[in-house]
Amino acid sequence: MTLESLIAGAKEQGASDLHLEAGLPAALRIRGTLRTAGEPIALQILSSFAHEILGDHWPQFLERHSADLSRTISGVRCRINILQTSRGIGFAIRLLASFQATIETLNLHPDLKKLITHPHGLILISGPTGSGKSSTLAALIQEINLTDTRHIVTIESPIEYSFRPRRSYIRQREVGRDTPSFEQALLDALREDPDVLMVGEMRDPETMRLTLNASETGHLVLATVHSSTCAEALQRVASAFPAEIQASVCAQLADCLLGVISQRLVYRNDLNMRIPECEVLTATMAVKNFVRTREFFKIASSLETGAEHGMWTFQRYRSWIQNRKKWHTPEEIAEAPDSEPVGETMPLPTPASAPTTTKISLPHKPAPATGDRIEIEPEEGDWGKILKTKE
Question: CA angle, 179 as apex, 214 and 95 as ends, to 5°?
Fold first, then answer.
């Protein structure tokens, strides 16, 4: 038994998550339901998996009793959480989509593209755990990448989707590996000339404060937050701060807000897959006023009457889903070639190609998978020639 074989087996069965726990059989989440498979796994086996994948970071795991990382294993991009439990060591592994997430491939409504046309402001993507927030966030970033020439900086913990620069110039930073914290990465980002900032998750008031500040200073900021509706997402941000400063936070949030997307996944028997069902709130003057005065309970009425402003309630979105005829399935997308975007592209150097492998050996020191990341080789430009001439 190897971690590669377990992940490969989970992929074959169409699982979205794989859970491993000492003394218990592996559990697979398939179409939202957990199923166990195989025999109980011994603690020694899971300990060897953890030692192998963490390598030199094993002492940090012993200190924190948890670790977050991402790897490409058996050809599958995985987000891995290793945790200490009452039984010993456990794994919670999210198997990410093998295709590049886009608005079309995720079967999202094309109206979501309108949110990212703004040069600055804040877009929140909300939903419960496992609702596809990260995929939707990646799809919006990819839409910018394919259509506009912007400098994009992502701050993630860990990196889930690796982007290949097309028209945009993309930098991805992983908390714990490339930067010590979300707060430090956000402070650094303001000095890195970004046009777009992606914050993987707003976990604490300081991260939220810096995210709001960045969206006010001429940057387009996309971030995720855990909540079940758009109104709850905004209320969650406001309530994360002390009561004495919530009024000023809500005023700041109202000024920079562009929209909120709240989503959940629903299973379609006829399609044999789960699709996102969304609630979409756009920042009209009425919505901004409700946020500024902290009357979040009134946002529901704006959603009901805001269809002409591009708003969607869950019920209206469900009706659109029922009337939709064409769907993108993972099988069709996997067979489609990776085509270049139509139109002008940035004059970036050609990325170095790397062979695609279906099985990898896990490194003792975490390192990005070479098959998934672009490596831009330096090229000598006119400035370099001038310096050589002067020498």
Answer: 95
